[in-house]
C-alpha cells in the first residue's frame, strides 16, 4: 500500500508568479446553465506554480519538454533537509555532504527549505535560500538527472549561470514544490511528469511523493 503526499501548489485565477512572467488566468468559459457542462479556459506561464524546466528554457538547442526522458521525472528520489536555512542564505556543497554517496549518476535529488509557506507573499519570489554557482557545478559534475526544490527558482540573482550549468548538463529542474516536510523520510518515489508541450521550455506538473506504508 502506498501513501500519497501532494507536493504541488494550487493553480488559480490571479495566482502570483514572477513579475516578468505571463499572469495566471483561470476563466469560466461556459457553465452547466449555459451549455449543459462547466468548462474553463487556462492562460498561464509554462513556469507557473509547481513546474519543471527543460534545457530549452535557457539553451536554444537544448531539449524541449516532449524530448525529456521521463525517467528523470519519475522514480526513487533523495530528500535533503535544509529546513534550517534562513531567508537569503546560500545553499552550498557542504549542505549536501551527508548525502554525497547517494548522489550518483541519474539520481533524483530534492531539497527542502519549507519556503513554500511564504507563498503568496511577494518576498516568496526574492528572499528564499539560494543555490550557489559552486553547488550547481558540483551537482552537474555528479551527473544527477533531476534537482527539485520548494523555492520558485534556484537563485534569484545568478539565475542565468545556475540554469545554464544545470540545464547544460541535462539536469531537469523541478521548482515550486510544496509540503516536503510531510514526506517524513529521506527517500521516496517521485512522480512529476510534465505535460507533453511540443517544442517548448517548461511545464506545470502535479508532483507527488509515493510512500510505502504498512
Q: What is the third-level CATH name, the topology? A: Glucose Oxidase, domain 1
- Main sheet specs: 9 strands, mixed
Strand order, sheet with most strands: 1-13-11-5-7-9-10-4-12
Shape: globular
Number of helices: 3
Radius of gyration: 17 Å
Residue stretches low in confidence (pLDDT < 50, at least 5 long) are none
Helical proportion, percent range = 10-25%
Total separate domains: 1
Structural class: alpha/beta
Average of the residue pLDDT scores? 97
Name given to the CATH architecture: 3-Layer(bba) Sandwich
- The fourth-level CATH homologous superfamily is Putative cyclase
Oligomer: single chain
How do the helices and strands follow one another from N- to C-terminus?
EEHEEEEEEHEHEEEE
Organism: Cohnella abietis
InterPro entries: KFase/CYL (IPR007325), KFase_sf (IPR037175)
GO molecular function: arylformamidase activity
Protein name: Cyclase
